[in-house]
Amino acid sequence: MLRIRREKITYRFSPDLKPVAEVSPGEIIEVETHDCFTGQLKSEEDLISEVDFSRVNPATGPVAVKGARPGDLLVVDIENIALGDRGFMVTIPGEGAFGSRFSSPTTKVIPVDKTKFQFNPSLSFPIRPMIGVIGVATEKKAVPCGEIGDHGGNMDATVITEGSRLYFLVRKEGGLLALGDVHAGMGDGEVVICGVEIPALVRLKLGLVKAPDYKPLRPVVELKDSFITIGHGPSLDKAAQQALDDMIDLVVNKTGMEIAEAAMLLSAVGDLKVCQIVDPQKTARVEMPRIVLGDSNASLWKAKF
Ligand code: CA
Ligand code: ZN
């Protein structure tokens, strides 16, 4: 199995990314990811104030998929996320929901094993691995991996996890997928500005949808029982509106429902949730039960592997 090493990183999604590997649809690969600090924090004595911010939020890759052309959908099945043995959390004065209450930065090391993370000596929680940063090459301008755009990027959505399928609209030949910023756990909101930041080994299967019947501008996530749109914007309201607009367009296109019917359906069974509120661009998502597609096993698009 092809393994992409964590030395092969990019700090931005851009139109001119050069692939570090090329794979065929159906190929399964392993991707090593750094933590979001690129390993610069090594102990609780290492503070965020000493970190080189030009080396934060790396994404491993990009990987090109053979045959991916602009207008196709790149399909990413996240098969497994194996976590490192310790994660880091930080507080930063002036950042996050409580930034005004901190006078100095702090760092916390969190031991992680196969099933749980040890938040402190008396509190441990089941791991909930997720990928914070994942995206494809942008069409026009370069976007740092710490930011969000229509190509994906730093979405920080807890639904991007083992068993998720993601669809990305391809902007550039090969699609050019890169990912990083794995968390051993993160609450919706990511309120202090980080999850349990950790290096990881992610196993993915890559596929394509050629000439999709409907092209979502932004990433769409499929879970076993639901499908999800993720919106972003300078406020939580704007992020929510974008996720809602994306979802109603998707439902109308996939089911042929009238707009009023689809709107009521969203209001009846769609869950609007917060992804993160701590970056300049906030992210929110809408989760819809997969059964609204008429068949709970149906995928939104038929992928070629
Ligand atoms: Ca993140
Ligand atoms: Zn992170």
Question: How would you explain this protein's 3D organization?
Answer:
With 305 residues, the protein is mainly beta. The chain has one domain (2-217): Jelly Rolls (Sandwich), CATH 2.60.120.580. Helices cover 10% and strands 38% of the residues. The chain has helices at 236-255, 259-269; strands spanning 2-4, 9-10, 12-13, 21-23, 28-33, 59-65, 73-83, 86-91, 106-111, 116-120, 123-126, 130-135, 143-144, 148-149, 152-154, 165-169, 177-183, 200-209, 220-222, 226-233, 271-276, 282-289. The strands form five sheets. A nine-stranded mixed β-sheet has the order 1-5-18-7-16-19-20-22-21. Strands 2, 4, 6, 12, 14, 15 and 17 form a seven-stranded mixed β-sheet that branches. It has a two-stranded antiparallel sheet with strand order 3-13. Helix 1 (236-255) crosses helix 2 (259-269). It binds calcium ion and zinc ion (ZN). Calcium ion binds next to strand 12.
